[in-house]
Design brief:
2 domains; alpha+beta; four-stranded antiparallel beta sheet; 179 residues; Beta-Lactamase; globular
Length: 179
């Protein structure tokens, strides 16, 4: 129970930089954006059936095509709705350390049902250092949920370039699913 309480509080605090809560920051009783209590649950996209291998490979191919077009060597991972690895692609010359980072971004995006850029913004722009203590979180852009028919079926993670390069490639991959 003691483990759940800090995580629950942290998820509520994430509202301070995500979605509807940003408009409510000024109304926090203490002036602290972490004290905002939103009316609705943010990032509550329901989990759906896991993404198929064929669809995961299509997303990876699109992300890698975008990276290749720009001359970037990236690692790309797709996980299912339970954050389990479904498919992975490593472009020639992609740095080895980014293999795990691509998988981590995809898992965090699926588990927390939001782009990992939200966490990066929380740490960098809002100075919410406590985010770094959340289990399985990565505060680096390049992880994007894959949503079909209003349900999360997985997530894609890219790593090996700058954060903005990783995010651009992942956006291309996610576009094959997120219509």
């Amino acid at each position: 129970m003691t483990k759940l309480a800090p995580n629950a509080l942290a998820l509520v605090a994430l509202l301070a930089f995500g979605g509807a809560a940003s408009a409510q920051q000024a109304t926090a009783p203490t002036g602290n954006p972490l004290d905002v209590i939103p009316d609705k649950m943010p990032f509550s996209t329901p989990y759906g059936a896991p993404i198929s291998l064929a669809r995961a490979q299509t997303a990876i191919s699109a992300a890698m095509a975008e990276a290749d077009k720009r001359g970037w060597a990236l690692n790309v991972a797709v996980v299912d709705s339970g954050a389990n690895l479904v498919a992975f692609g490593r472009m020639d010359g992609a740095q080895l350390a980014s293999i795990a980072a691509a998988e981590h971004k995809a898992r965090a995006s699926a588990s927390y049902r939001r782009p990992t850029k939200n966490f990066e913004d929380g740490v960098q722009k809002s100075d919410f250092k406590y985010l770094l203590s959340l289990d399985g979180l990565i505060a680096s852009r390049g992880g994007i949920p894959l949503i079909e028919d209003g349900k999360l079926i997985g997530a894609i993670g890219c790593s090996g370039g700058t954060g903005s390069q990783d995010e651009a490639a992942c956006t291309a991959g996610a576009a094959t699913i997120n219509k």
